[in-house]
Specification:
Largest sheet: 24 strands, antiparallel, barrel
Strand content: over 45%
Distance between the termini: 29 Å
Shape: globular
Length: about 550
């Protein structure tokens, strides 16, 4: 099978290269390796493989009229926490793209997003093990002023499977009103209207109502629509988007026959010295997969954007929020940033930056749940009131202060109050309330030497209670960075999660060597999360771009 894939892949790349003048070649290699060790204190898993690795190699040829590319993946012994079906190797991504006067035609594997991704977003996120690309054909047309049209069709990747039992078709159009309405253009207003449609066609499954001999009548075709408008003038940006999904019984919604919908409103304004953002989203039963019986992170056709701040500090990211696409949620997010000018009372000599971020997410209020043989299978799943809200899922209020003290000394401070419903997100554990303090000093020792530290503390009476974290990092420009850190569960287990790393950069090469422990927990990006078990051992990460 692997040879049958590699031969046409090499042929396509060679053909594209020989047929075009002015061809440029770009690519990359990425390999993350763990040499796992047993650690009874943190409960590491036992691996029969002494070396675990996720390795990727991309190459692409680009020219005026034709592009072509492929990716080789070696995931035969994957890193901890990836789903069993993730294991494998081969050439999962190969494409040829033709371009001519506003027309672009792709054959092979591709990624696409319509609007905010409510009904279609295929993408690659290696840290989560996500690659839900579509294999088929896509046509993009940008030949008419102010109008962009996309049409596509194919089958979706799920790890190393491209099941023909499910097919995906879709179309998207965006129109710029300002290109045809002169008053808008004169006032420098950009106003876009957009609409999308996605059809999932899936063969029927034999899904039985538990405890009965009744088989569900599952729809073979599920349609989804999306309409949106985006207004922009100067520093003002307004966005409104609505999506609707037909009856889509699946594992996510207990095989119920309720329609899905999502509404998002967003307003942002910025000018010199300050900016503000407010967003609200209500979604209901918007988990949309190409294969209805799948669970965890695979086979998603869409992605519901998370309205939770993406933290980079270790303890602030200890309890990350995962979007509840099914059954749904009310989500609010606000952000405000202000810069106090230099040579003022609060700005000081170098100025002061202040940021406030608020995330507030609740579940939906559901009543009159209909049951059939003590199961939701085959029912409408109950009634939800549009404006009523259910229990609190997540709350994050954080205040950040960014201050340059002297020419060589810089200081960041953050206070965060968090409420995390562990039962909703992880299935158990109740509400976790925490307060987190972060202090990050950075001192420039010389032209090429910078010392950075992180000192963090999490206060909590729930779950594993208090945590402390410390990090020291020395940057030796432009080639080397050395760091040591420790994450200590001082409130409950007393376990230390220590880590030491050395990172080197030379031209287009980057190599990281490390040793230590990794805490069990969730790795999240964009509201999608993957559970990562505890591990200990030597780590090696290499990347090369050309």
């Amino acid at each position: 099978m692997k040879k049958s894939i590699l031969i046409p892949a090499i042929a396509v790349m060679s053909l594209a290269a020989s047929a075009q003048k002015g061809v440029t070649v770009h690519g990359s290699v990425q390999s993350d390796i763990l040499f796992p060790e047993k650690d009874y204190e943190i409960g590491t898993e036992t691996y029969k493989d002494k070396v675990l690795t996720n390795t990727y190699a991309d190459v692409g040829l680009y020219s005026k009229y034709v592009d072509a590319g492929l990716r080789v993946e070696y995931l035969q012994h994957p890193l901890p926490g990836f789903e069993p079906d993730f294991k494998g190797w081969g050439v999962p991504n190969i494409y040829v793209k033709g371009k001519y006067k506003g027309f672009e035609l792709t054959a092979g594997d591709f990624y696409e997003q319509f609007g905010s991704g409510f009904i279609l977003r295929t993408y690659e996120e290696r840290s989560l093990g996500i690659d839900n690309s579509i294999r088929g054909g896509r046509l993009k047309v940008n030949a008419m002023r102010g109008l962009r049209v996309t049409a596509l069709g194919g089958i979706q990747r799920r790890f190393w499977d491209w099941s023909t039992s499910s097919r995906v078709f879709g179309g998207d159009a965006e129109f710029d009103l300002n290109e045809y309405i002169a008053p808008l253009s004169r006032r420098n207003i950009i106003w876009t209207l957009g609409a999308s449609y996605v059809l999932k066609n899936e063969d029927k499954d034999d899904i039985m109502v538990p405890g009965t001999n009744f088989k569900l009548n599952l729809p073979q075709n599920v349609s989804a629509f999306d309409v949106r408008t985006h207004f922009y003038r100067g520093g003002l940006s307004l966005l409104g988007e609505f999506a609707w999904k037909g009856q889509d019984p699946s594992f996510d919604n207990n095989y119920t026959y309720r329609h899905g919908n999502a509404l998002m409103l967003s307003a942002a304004y910025s000018k010199t010295g300050w900016s503000a953002l407010f967003q609200v989203k209500r979604s209901e039963d918007m988990a949309f997969r190409s294969q209805r019986s799948m669970k965890m992170t695979s086979a998603f056709l869409n992605n519901m954007p998370a309205f939770a701040y993406q933290h980079t500090y270790a303890l602030a990211a200890l309890y990350p929020y995962a979007t509840q696409a099914a059954p749904g949620e009310w989500a609010f997010q606000g952000a405000f940033a202000y810069t106090f000018k230099r040579k003022t009372a609060l700005g000081g000599k170098y100025g002061t930056k202040l940021k406030l971020n608020v995330s507030y997410i609740r579940g939906l209020h559901t009543t009159d749940k209909e049951l059939f043989h003590n199961s939701l299978y085959g029912t409408s799943g109950g009634h939800t009131s549009f404006f009523k809200m259910g229990e609190l899922n997540y709350q994050d209020i954080n205040l950040q202060l960014d201050k340059k003290i002297t020419k060589d000394f810089h200081l960041n401070f953050m206070y965060m109050n968090q409420r995390y419903n562990k039962t909703v997100v992880e299935g158990h554990g109740g509400m976790v309330n925490s307060n987190i303090l972060v202090l990050e000093p950075k001192y420039k020792l010389s032209k090429n030497l910078t010392l950075r530290g992180e000192f963090q503390y999490l206060f909590s009476r729930q779950d594993q209670k208090d945590w402390a974290y410390g990090l020291l990092e020395l940057s030796i420009l432009p080639y080397l960075m050395v760091s040591v850190s420790d994450q200590w569960n001082c409130g409950d287990t007393g376990i230390h999660y220590y880590m030491a790393t050395v990172t080197g950069n030379y031209r287009r090469n980057r190599l990281m060597l490390g040793y230590g422990r990794t805490r069990a927990g969730y790795n999240c990006s964009g509201g999608v999360c993957r559970y990562v078990p505890a591990s200990r051992g030597f780590q090696l990460a290499y990347s090369y771009n050309f």
